[in-house]
Amino acid sequence: MAAQPRVKFLLPFALATFMLTGCIKSPEWTLFYFADTPNKTDLSLNYDAIKGYYNTLEQCQAKGAGIVRIQGGEITEQVDFICGQQCQIADDNQVSCSQLVSDKDFLKQL
């Protein structure tokens, strides 16, 4: 009979924990920022270039453009930031994404 009160306590706790974890959504988009990179010919996506994670492409692009403006720059012909969708980090810190959208694509939307 001692096990029954413990089950009555643990069952609601386990159910609440399960329900709360179902509400947490991982971010869909990753911001890679390159404006402060001296060599813009090699824009390899790696962990060091990540500047944030966002739920929507619009949020990612707005943050990338905002960082460029805050640092006193303008979005030029060179790529300053890239937003990647559903990115995965490999063991060597290289990142692969299912889709990439550069700041040039962002400018076309304006």
The counted number of beta strands is: 6
Name the average pLDDT. 78
The side-by-side strand order for the widest beta sheet comes to 2-1-3-6
Order of helices and strands: HEEHEEEEH
- Per DSSP, the total helix count is 3
Unreliable residue runs: none
Proportion of residues in helical segments: 25-40%
Head-to-tail CA distance between termini: 68 Å
- What sort of overall outline do the alpha carbons produce when their principal axes are compared? globular
Give a structural overview.
The protein is an alpha+beta fold and 110 residues long. The chain is built from 3 helices and 6 strands. The strands form 2 sheets. Strands 2-1-3-6 form a 4-stranded antiparallel β-sheet. The protein has a two-stranded antiparallel ribbon with strand order 4-5. A hairpin with a 5-residue loop joins strand 4 and strand 5. The protein is globular, with a radius of gyration of 21 Å. The N and C termini lie far apart (68 Å).
List the helices and strands and how they pair.
Blueprint: H1 3-23, E1 29-33, E2 50-54, H2 57-70, E3 81-85, E4 88-89, E5 95-96, E6 99-102, H3 103-109
Antiparallel strand pairs: 1-2, 1-3, 3-6, 4-5
Tag the structure with descriptive keywords.
110 residues, alpha+beta, two-stranded antiparallel sheet, 3 helices, 6 strands
In short:
The protein has 110 residues and is an alpha+beta fold. The protein contains three helices and six strands; from the N terminus they run H-E-E-H-E-E-E-E-H. A hairpin with a 5-residue loop joins strand 4 and strand 5.
